[in-house]
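JOB MANIFEST
job_type = single_chain_structure
chain_count = 1
residues = 354
[input]
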Amino acid sequence: MLKSKFMSKKFLFALILLSIIGAGIIAFIIIKNRTLPIVSKVADNQILFPTLSNDQKYIFYFSNANEAAFYRLELQNQKIEKISEDFDTPDRIIWSPSKNQAILQVTYNKYIFEKYGSPFIRPGVDDQAITFWLYDLNQKKLSPLDLNIRDIIWSKDGQKIVSSYYDEELNHNIINISDPDGTNLENLIKNELPIEKVISYEPANKKLIFGASTPGELESRLDIYQVIGSGTPTLIIETVEPGGIYASSNMEHLVSIIDGVLNISNLTQNKTQSLKIKTNKNLTVWLNDNQNLIVATRQETTKTDTFYKINSQTLKKNMINHKGTVDIQNLILSSDQKTLYFTSDDILYKLELK
């Protein structure tokens, strides 16, 4: 009888102890989850090619959900305003640093454009040709750019556009700089390198980074070159994957994917190091210090996207844990570096950073 009472007390004690431990674990999980940054939806409407206004009050974007045009979303009160006439949907939009101009990349649909009177009509242009256009949001003016352009970016100061094209007569690849409307054209590079991508240009020191096709590669790979002024292009990184190449604002570091692994390159030391993150996606935003960056990567095996904060000097990386897994696109960092905006399935979300 005494043994039975002793056993029942022992059982009761164990049960109480397990309950306390269980409650502690549950409380820990709840507290941890409460402290995790939460992915929250900003708006329910379709948002394509978004950018954040320099005063941080608006998201400028394109949408074809109703009338295909440019729109402005006021973040504080969710007010949406149409800010352009109607367009056919572009393939890509490259926003100027001032956000009052945008370059539109458009695949020429000869039948549709010419039948329905598209603003992108250009007589004599071949069907499915890649064309580029400048749109001024203040003047609501659309201007065609050179038909020979293959790739295009804004210069760091936002005053010029930098574009590449192939000159069949000279058998040379050329990179030019001009005013946004294509006037006041100047040549930056003219050589036989098979230039595919213009990455970054700093007018103050005339520093240019671009990508050329890797000779002998069966798949599409790029070799990355750097040139300053009228100097000779220098090979700095070999065989990177063409998607997801981001230079820091001071153009001293560059992030890329090499053989499915994220890498960071110190361009002043001409040194590339692996970050040991396997991914087939790289979306990068650089912080104001030009040393730290936030990247969104995708694990192909798990089909999940992950944020990392990385120091380009030490290579230290921290995963940014968050509630909510989404297919991340269009990564934008607020100027105070406290909020990440991005889209998933053309819906705008935000992640508040600690």
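[summary]
The helical segments are 2-35, 110-116.
The chain has two helices and 28 strands.
exit_status = 0
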